[in-house]
Amino acid sequence: MGTRIAVVGAGTIGGAIAVALKEAGHEVVATRRNVEKASWLKEKGVTVTRDNRKAAGEADVVFLAVKPGKVGAVLGEIADVVEGKLVISVVAGVSLKELKRLASAKFVRAMPNIAILARESFTAYSTDDLDGDEVELVERLLRTFGACVRVEEEHMDAITGLSGSGPAYVTVFLEAMVYGGLRVGLPRDVAKLAALQTLLGTAKLLMETEAHPAEVREWVITPEGTTIDGVFELEEGKIRTAVMKAVDAATKKSRILSKKV
Ligand SMILES: NC(=O)C1=CN([C@@H]2O[C@H](COP(=O)(O)OP(=O)(O)OC[C@H]3O[C@@H](n4cnc5c(N)ncnc54)[C@H](O)[C@@H]3O)[C@@H](O)[C@H]2O)C=CC1
Ligand SMILES: O=C(O)[C@@H]1CCC=N1
C-alpha cells in the first residue's frame, strides 16, 4: 500500500522526488511558492499546493527540499504538525543536529542527485534515531530514486560534493566529448550518441566486472595505438586534479552552507 507523502519545496529536486514517489504508487502532495510553475507535477498526478502545514500535517512522511536558507523558516512553520513524524531532508549542508534543533521530528539526512528523473540516482542517507521498520520504509522510498546506501553523517558533505553535484561535472565532460567529436567532423547526433553510450557502457562495464578504472583503461590502450595519444592530452590538461578539486570545492561549500540556516 502507498504511503502519504508531502514534498515541501517542489523545485528541481523536490519535483523529481515527487514524481518518482507518485509513479511508485504513493500518494504525493507537493508544495512550492509558485504553483503555476508546477504543471508538469500536476500532469503526473501530484497534488500541488502552497500550504505547507496542511500538506505536512496530512502526510505520513515529509520530504524537505527547500534551499538551505529556507530551512529555518519552513521547519518553524510546520514544526508542530511534523512532531514525531519521519522527515527526510535532502538539503545540502544542514546537519541532523541542526534539523533536530528546529523541530522534534524523526529526521533523515539524505543526498540524492538529479538522476532521480531517470530512476538512477545515487542516494546516500544517514540517521540516528529510527527503528528497524522506519529504516526499512526510508530505504524503500529512497530506492525508488535509484541506488541507495546508508553512511555515517560525517560523510554527507563529501557525498554532496561527489555524487550530489556529480551530474554537473559529468555533463561538462560529456559536452566536451561531443564537441571533440564535432571538431573531428562527426554529425551532431552521432557525436552525442557516441559520447553518451560510451559513458553509459563504461559505467556499466565497471559495475558488472567490478574492475578498477585503471584496469579497464589498460584494456583500451593498445601499445602505439590511438588511445594513448588521447590520454596523454587529458593528463597534460590535468583532468584528474581538476575533477578532484571540483569535488573538494563542492564538499567545502556544503560544509559552510549550514551557516545559512
Ligand atoms: N538540484 C539538485 O540536483 C539537488 C538539490 N538538493 C537540495 O535540494 C534543495 C533544493 O534545491 P533545488 O531543487 O535545486 O532548488 P530550487 O530552487 O529548484 O527549489 C526550491 C523550491 O523551494 C520552494 N520554496 C521556497 N520557499 C518555500 C516555502 N517557504 N515553502 C515551500 N516551498 C518553498 C521554491 O518555490 C522552489 O520550488 C537544496 O537544499 C539543495 O541543496 C539536493 C540534491 C540534489
Ligand atoms: O548545488 C547544490 O547546492 C545542490 C546540492 C547538490 C546538488 N545541487
Automatic annotation (TrEMBL):
Gene Ontology terms describing biological process: L-proline biosynthetic process
Binding site for NADPH: 52
Subcellular location: Cytoplasm
Binding site for NADP(+): 65-68
Alphabetical list of InterPro entries matching this protein: 6-PGluconate_DH-like_C_sf, NAD(P)-bd_dom_sf, P5C_Rdtase_cat_N, P5CR_dimer, Pyrroline-COOH_reductase
Keyword Metal-binding assigned: no
The keyword Oxidoreductase belongs to this UniProt entry's keyword annotation: yes
Pathway noted in the entry: Amino-acid biosynthesis; L-proline biosynthesis; L-proline from L-glutamate 5-semialdehyde: step 1/1
GO CC annotation: cytoplasm
Residue ranges of every copy of the Pyrroline-5-carboxylate reductase dimerisation domain listed in the record: 153-255
Keywords: Amino-acid biosynthesis, Cytoplasm, NADP, Oxidoreductase, Proline biosynthesis
Function: Catalyzes the reduction of 1-pyrroline-5-carboxylate (PCA) to L-proline.
PANTHER family in alphabetical order: PYRROLINE-5-CARBOXYLATE REDUCTASE (PTHR11645), PYRROLINE-5-CARBOXYLATE REDUCTASE 3 (PTHR11645:SF0)
NCBIfam families: proC
Name of the protein this chain belongs to: Pyrroline-5-carboxylate reductase
Originating organism: Thermococcus celer Vu 13 = JCM 8558
Gene field: proC
